Amino acid sequence: MKHSINRRTLLKGLLGGAAISIGLPPLECFINANGTAYAGGGTSFPKRFGVFFWGNGVLPARWDPTTEGTGYALSPQLMPLAALKPDMTIISASRVLTTNSSPHLSGPAGLLTGDALSGGTVTRPSIDQVLAQEIGGETRFRSLEIGVQRSDNSYSFSGPNQINPPETSPRAFFNRLFGDGFRMPGEMTTADPRVRLRRSVLDAVGGQAGDLRNRLGSADRIRLDQHLEGIRGLERQIARLEENPPSLAACRRPDMPPEAYADIDGRPQMSAISHAMADLMAMALACDQTRVFFNMYSQSVNNTLFPGAPAGHHQLTHDEPGEQPMVDAIVRLIMSDLAYFLSALRGVPEGDGNLLQHSIVLCTTDCSYGKSHSIDDYPMILAGSAGGALATGRHIAARGENSSKVMLSILRAMGVRATDFGVGAGRTMDGLSALSP
Amino acid sequence: MLRRLTQAQYVNAIHDLLGDDLLVSRPMEPDVSLGGSISVGAAGTSISPRGVEQYEALAYDLAEQLLRTGARRARAVSCTPMAIVDATCAETFVRATGRRLWRRPLTDAESTALVTLAGNAAMTLNDFHRGLEYALSAMLQSPLFLFRVEIAEPATGADVARFSPYSLAARLAFFLWNGPADDDLLAAAADGRLSTDEGVSAEVTRMVASPKLNRGLRAFVTEWLGLQRLDAVTKDPMVYTSFSSDVPAAAREETLSLAEHLAVTRDADFRDIITTREIFVNRRLASIYNVRAPSQMRPDGFGLTTLPEDSPRRGLLGHVSMLALAAHPVSTSPTLRGKFIRESLLCNEVPMPPVNVNTALPEPTTGLRTMRERLLRHQVDPTCRSCHALLDPIGLALENFDGIGAYRTNDHGAAIDASGNLDGVAYGDSRGLTQTLHDSPAFPRCISTRLYRFAYGRHESDGEEAEVGRLAQDFAYGGYRLRRLMSSIAVSPAFRRADSTAGRQP
Fold first, then answer.
1. Where does the pLDDT of residue B503 fall: very low under 50, low under 70, confident under 90, or very high at 90 and above?
2. Same domain for B228 and B115?
3. Partners of residue B142 in chain A, C-beta under 8 Å
């Protein structure tokens, strides 16, 4: 006997409904009678959202496709994504309209939050965290953040200065996902009393914090609330240990990745790490451990030594003369790692379709032309369509359009009844019409 | 104000309060630097969901290490339980441990909740001490441990609001020791001594004489110079063949050792950090510097030696740490080096580079071989010049040191010219630059500013410029001894005054 309905009810009971946000039609995540898949065909699978971010921009002349619409031809830098062409939409020529004051930082902040930087940080959550609030309450992890380049930095923000640091070790990510807190269906063993004790500890911790909260100023209260939200999230994770996990056809416990990926010739194994992370994230999504992710492939201003490159990535974007063939090779390498990532999602069958089709992955960077830090002609790829809610297989040259329109289209395609996105110059009340299916 | 424990502070707190034989070997929430300061970052950030998971795992790990077996358990639990559930003995443990971990006595309600938790766990697991593990774990995951809570006492009469004695004890200890208050300091908070000028002075005098001062000093120097960034430094081993994965940590230790030597061991003029010929090296660094390894080494393989008088290398700006950080993976960067000197040594504000400009540098050719020649464009183009005039010329003074700090006399076959001037004072090479910096009043003033931010966990407001100025003056008056500057901040009335961001007394 399966417990999908109980699980849902139990969750709401535990949280008093508080952590589950409003404005979202209930997701149909009920399991069919055989326990092999979600019932009801393709459209009833949960929608997932993720960001794939890389640093230092592109070469617009080699990135932007020269033809538009469904019959467009891929540009040289997009060629590694050829096999995914039907599953994605290229958006070029839109602009981040918020102030471009800080090279590399203003672009992502304006794109992902719809607002300019203030005091060196964002003013509001990034779109992944907006969606995590909306659709993250059902799963073990509200959202998962990973990266490939070793760094603690990210553009996944829960609020001002509140970064969600990426996990950049495949082994550590595996342990977090598929270690103690993970069970396959049917692995329900005898109840461990320590699970209940762990929850009572977190309950006590949350209670003490409540007393503290009343004594704090507003800024500190927000910081404390974020900590408390994390504690509630952990309580929710532990509660899952006492339930039978969802039975999902494509879910399996992946092999444990190596403990370390040693540098080769002083160069990090970006592709090998990226592939391992892709396989793990695909399983995290297939096993419905989360529905929201942020993949910080590489950082803004990163000076990573890519294989064969004679200098760090960022230095090359500025110093390499001419048409920048070395920068071009790096962007194409990143696109082939992106292709692997998206293919891993596409390789998970769900009903008549696949996981990528039920997702939207926003793939983007921090500027268009790295050399000049331009945030006009912003490079974006939307992969997947959230079950047909977005148009795919085309190139949209959204000349001069506010990039926030794309974000609003994403929110709506994900099922959020949002009236607008962004503030000030970044604000829009309309999605990008060309993205309508 | 809430100040999250930094990673180093968490480790120090565990070692000081639960015993330095406990291993803190799991990952935790990363430190965040805001405006170039980890302390400011700790006062502006929270804990991510992943961090909550990590702190939970750490808490159970540490609780087990402390309470699962004999000797450590005996040290931590002073009473013998009469039964599996013994509320009296549990309360003894909870109150004693809680007072230290939460930096103030527990309220009755807090104590009762933890004792109940311990009792339920003991009953479930049929073991008194297993029960205590859950109570300890709760204390370690609490925001009352993971954040320092700075609480103000209400102002009385004409007096301004001040931090409560326990808040002040923690404030002093985390500033000077980068760790928690000890029992003496907690006692001084409890018996009212920290409410008097004399009492605070006496405690600060004791604290700056303690070996733990090294921890505070090292934390300050780490954030002042951005030494934590050495963890992520990459160099192309094809270009820098003597660079290996053990160099960054050694380079950091060298710089910290020198700071400690000047500020604590010798209590000397701290400006000398920029001009001294004394260096701490291990064998690895000695080979990069091309000096003989010292005859006497510390157990960690480092020793003090003195560069010959004709050495081109002086002080901090000759360290591998600084020279490798302010450089690219395959080359130097006079721009980054100039920026470091402006921002970290002179506290000048360097504007962000503009957007939508062509930033390409010409490749080295027979006509343009040295960095100075290749960077000429920065000085000619008016858009570039407005900022690069501040940066490149002083960075070029360090061109005799390559991207990992090894000495060289030419670049792509052309002789290096390291001459220049700093705000009008001319120098012939980096030795002249370091002497000019040493003699500039802006340098010690900048140290005072950075130490102020470290102590307060925020940037100084306009109204506080006078206090920073007073501290800088006192620093000069006392012969630029950093230990004295740390004391001056710690005993100052301003450091005890609670600003509007302090929490309220319940």
1. low
2. no
3. 205, 208-209
Tokens of B13: 């707190």
What is the percent of chain B with per-residue pLDDT over 70, rounded to a whole number? 97
Q: Is B347 exposed, middle or buried (0-12, 13-18, 19+ CB in 10 A)?
A: middle
Q: Is residue B167 part of a domain?
A: no
Mutate to test the interface with B, among A154, A197, A229, A318 (most CBs of B within 10 A): A197
What's residue A189's pLDDT? 61
CB-based contact, A151 to chain B, within 8 Å: yes
When divided into structural domains, chain B yields a total of 2
Q: What is the mean pLDDT of residues A421-428?
A: 96
- Would you call B46 and A223 a contact, using CB atoms and an 8 Å cutoff? yes
Is B358 at the interface with chain A, CB within 8 A? Answer: yes
Interior/surface letters A376-408, b for 16+ CB within 10 angstroms, e for the rest: bbbbbbbbbbbbebbbbbbbbbbeebbbbbbbb
- Could you tell me if A195 lies within 8 Å of chain B, comparing CB atoms? no
B6 in A contact zone (CB under 8 Å): no
| Cβ of residue B500 closer than 8 Å to a chain A Cβ | yes
Say how far apart CA A231 and CA A209 lie, in whole Å: 10
Pairing status of strand B420-422 against strand B425-427: antiparallel
- On chain B, the residues whose CB falls within 8 A of the CB of A157 are none
Predicted-complex ipTM score = 0.92
Does the reported pTM lie above 0.95?
A: no
Q: Which residues of chain B make contact with A165, given a CB cutoff of 8 A? A: 29-30, 48, 50-51
Annotated domain spans of chain A: 49-188+251-435, 190-243
Q: Chain A: nearest CA to B458, how far in angstroms?
A: 13
User: Domain check: are B297 and B413 in the same one?
Assistant: yes
**Hey, are the CB atoms on B363 and A142 less than 8 Å from each other?**
no
User: Could you read off the pLDDT of B266-299 as tens digits, one per residue?
Assistant: 999 999 999 999 999 999 999 999 999 999 999 9
Q: Which of A162, A167, A266 sits opposite B236 (nearest CB)?
A: A266
- Residue of chain B with shortest Cα separation from A317: B360
Q: Lowest-confidence range among A198-202, A205-209, B235-239, B435-439?
A: A205-209
Q: Are residues B139 and B230 in the same domain?
A: no
Residue B202 lies in a domain: no
Q: Check whether residue B400 and residue B257 sit in a common domain.
A: yes
Cα diameter, chain B: 87
Is B186 part of a structural domain of the chain?
no
Domain-located, residue B103: yes
Structure tokens at A84: 């995914």
Mean of the per-residue pLDDT values of chain B: 93
- B15 shares its domain with B107: yes
Percent of chain B residues topping a pLDDT of 90 = 82
Q: A 355-384 residues with CB below 8 A of B?
A: 371-375
pLDDT (average), residues B181-206: 96
Do residues B399 and B289 both lie within one domain?
Answer: yes
Q: What is the predicted pLDDT for the residue at A373?
A: 83
**Spatial CA neighbour of A280 closest among A231, A341, A223, A232:** A341
d(CA A395, CA A70): 7
Print the domain residue range for B54.
Answer: 2-147
Contact residues on chain B for A105, CB-CB shorter than 8 A? none
pLDDT digits (tens, 9 = 90+) for A263-311: 998 899 999 999 999 999 999 999 999 999 999 999 999 999 999 999 9
Predicted local confidence at residue A138, as pLDDT:
86
Q: Are B51 and B29 in contact (CB under 8 A)?
A: yes
**In CATH, what number does A49-188+251-435 get?**
3.40.720
Asked if B108 and B27 count as a contact pair (C-beta separation under 8 A), the reply is: no
